[in-house]
Structure to design on (129 residues):
């Protein structure tokens, strides 16, 4: 990307991201590596990353098998393979170069939650949709 990135996420965007994540059954927030992470039973389903000099604020989520390459190839301005967890199929969604499509962000977060959550919690999450 050729844009200049902000080094921290816009507070309104972080608040919206937080609301999406914490609306899921039994979701909790915990700081890790200097950034907020959202978990179900201490398993991370979403991480807000890129809050450092030169970083690009983003959210990282677990994606269904095979989806990562498809998304990154189709829209590299929005999706990327994040370091460390990308090798396990996670995707990153850029949150600072454009106004995020919050419906799409929500779908990715909910999908990640269902991939990580215990079966009983997955059913509860599906029932709330």
């Amino acid at each position: 990307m050729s844009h200049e990135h902000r080094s921290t996420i816009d507070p309104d965007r972080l608040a919206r991201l937080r609301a999406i994540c914490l609306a899921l059954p039994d979701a909790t927030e915990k700081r890790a590596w200097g950034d907020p992470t959202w978990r179900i039973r201490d398993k991370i389903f979403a991480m807000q990353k890129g809050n450092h000099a030169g970083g690009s604020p983003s959210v990282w989520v677990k994606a269904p098998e095979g989806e990562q390459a498809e998304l990154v190839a189709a829209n590299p301005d929005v999706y990327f393979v994040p370091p460390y967890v990308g090798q396990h199929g996670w995707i990153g969604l850029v949150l600072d170069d454009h106004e995020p499509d919050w419906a799409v962000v929500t779908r990715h977060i909910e999908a990640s939650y269902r991939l990580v959550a215990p079966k009983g919690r997955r059913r509860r999450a599906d029932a709330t949709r």
User: Anything to note?
Assistant: The longest strand covers residues 43-49.
